[in-house]
């Protein structure tokens, strides 16, 4: 078996792993400015996808340009999320079926509307622990506990068993249970996003968030909660429902909540009834006729995109609540350096809609990450102490691989463009 790392090695974003030039695992994009895509040309027979986040599926439709029609294999929620993200990318960059042809779309969007439409024609969905044959390999998905439908991907060519962890979480979340799968493997390609982070138990973080929100509401303030649309928004809605907190939800998170509750996706939820109740407890915002500014004056919780304050309805809510110290802005996800969210946390001000705005409202951060922390990654890898480990998907892959090697693992950290073969 030969592995080519076309993206996501020694970095976070644009994940892409090509196996024997035949089978492609993930094909994402890094949505930075400028965006970046997997390197080199690929023409796989088939594609398997670990989960529906932009850095793992963002470039996928571009593989369906011209006469190319590789099969795409994923879980039902991953398929649905990928379509939502692809259509949102088209909308963001104004690409149509008759759009520019560079990379099939534009510099910022590598595909067209027509290519997105073809995804459904080649899509095949699978549940967990249901082996299937594709391009000469036996592939099995296992629940990775990251987001709804996320999977560890086990690939067996008859001689070598590769476990691609994808992104995973070692603690239970509101939507999904933690990963417990540890299938036998000869080689493990493991994410390392938070290999240098130790966080408090999930329940402790949730309790702190709820206590803070309840305090602000009791004092008469408004709480704006910038949140990622996929997973994070729904986690927060569940917490609001469980603690009888009135909340509004705005942005793409509305569509994703409804998507998760579709019949074909309910079995991938830890507690479908909880999310159904959470949806019923939330008030969905349409954004019409000044509705957002009126909501921002209410004594309530507003869960809204974007999670890093670089767009979305948050651009209305934050400026509206920023001037009063009783109000609160509760950041719930990692803030990439250079984003307005990161600036707000570090300096107390941020550039919003082209204007630098000081913020007098309280600003807090809660680590609701859907990735395992250092302890979680190490606990997962303990089952593979006798297995070769290739560390990817992180900002310090080489350092973490060295730490693993020092503790007895056969570990290394490839970078984009590297190749590994089972004969090495």
Basic shape: globular
The helical percent reads 25-40%
Strand count: 22
How many separate helices? 13
Widest β-sheet, arrangement of strands: 6-5-4-3-2-1-22
**Which percent range describes the beta-strand content?**
15-25%
Total individual domains: 2
CATH topology name of the largest domain, in short, is: Metallo-beta-lactamase, Chain A
Rg, alpha carbons:
21 Å
Q: Any low-confidence stretches, pLDDT <50, length ≥5? A: 97-104
Largest sheet: 7 strands, mixed
Mean pLDDT: 94
CATH top level of the largest domain is Alpha Beta
CATH superfamily (homologous) name of the largest domain:
Ribonuclease Z/Hydroxyacylglutathione hydrolase-like
Structural class: alpha/beta
In the CATH classification, which architecture of the largest domain applies? 4-Layer Sandwich
Distance between the termini: 10 Å
């Amino acid at each position: 078996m030969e592995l080519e790392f076309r993206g996501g090695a020694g970095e976070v974003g644009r994940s892409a792993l090509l196996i024997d030039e035949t089978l492609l695992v993930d094909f994402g994009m890094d949505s930075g400015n400028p965006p970046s895509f997997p390197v080199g040309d690929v023409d796989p027979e088939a594609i398997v996808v670990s989960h529906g986040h932009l850095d793992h599926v963002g470039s996928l439709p571009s593989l369906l340009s011209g006469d190319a029609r590789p099969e795409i294999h994923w879980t039902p929620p991953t398929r649905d999320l990928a379509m939502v993200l692809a259509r949102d990318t088209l909308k963001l960059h104004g690409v149509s079926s008759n759009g520019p042809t560079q990379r099939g779309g534009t510099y910022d969007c590598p595909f067209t509307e027509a290519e997105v439409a073809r995804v459904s024609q080649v899509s095949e969905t699978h549940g967990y622990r249901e082996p299937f044959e594709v391009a000469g390999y036996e592939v099995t998905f296992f629940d990775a506990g990251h987001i709804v439908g996320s999977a560890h991907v086990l690939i067996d060519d008859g001689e070598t068993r590769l476990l691609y962890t994808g992104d995973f979480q070692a603690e239970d979340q509101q939507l999904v249970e933690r990963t417990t799968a540890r299938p036998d493997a000869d080689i493990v390609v493991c994410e390392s996003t938070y290999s240098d982070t130790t966080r408090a138990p999930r329940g402790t973080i949730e309790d702190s968030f709820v206590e803070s929100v309840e305090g602000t509401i009791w004092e008469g303030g408004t709480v704006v909660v910038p949140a990622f649309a996929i997973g994070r928004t729904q986690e927060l809605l569940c917490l609001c429902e469980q603690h009888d907190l009135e909340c509004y939800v705005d942005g793409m998170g509305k569509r994703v909540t409804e998507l998760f509750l579709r019949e074909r996706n309910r079995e991938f939820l830890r507690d479908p009834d909880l999310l159904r109740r959470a949806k019923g407890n939330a008030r969905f915002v349409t954004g019409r006729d000044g509705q957002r500014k009126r909501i921002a004056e209410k004594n309530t919780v507003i869960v809204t995109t974007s999670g890093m304050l670089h767009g979305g309805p948050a651009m209305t809510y934050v400026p509206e609540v920023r001037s009063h110290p009783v109000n609160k802005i509760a950041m719930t996800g990692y803030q990439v350096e250079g984003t307005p969210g990161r600036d707000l946390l570090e300096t107390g001000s941020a550039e919003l809609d082209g204007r630098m705005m000081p913020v007098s409202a309280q600003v807090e951060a809660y680590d609701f990450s859907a990735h395992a922390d250092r302890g979680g990654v190490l606990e997962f890898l303990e089952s593979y102490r006798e297995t070769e480990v290739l560390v990817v998907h992180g900002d310090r892959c080489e350092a973490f691989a060295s730490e693993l090697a020092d503790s007895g693992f056969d570990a290394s950290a490839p970078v984009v463009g590297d190749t590994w073969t089972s004969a090495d």
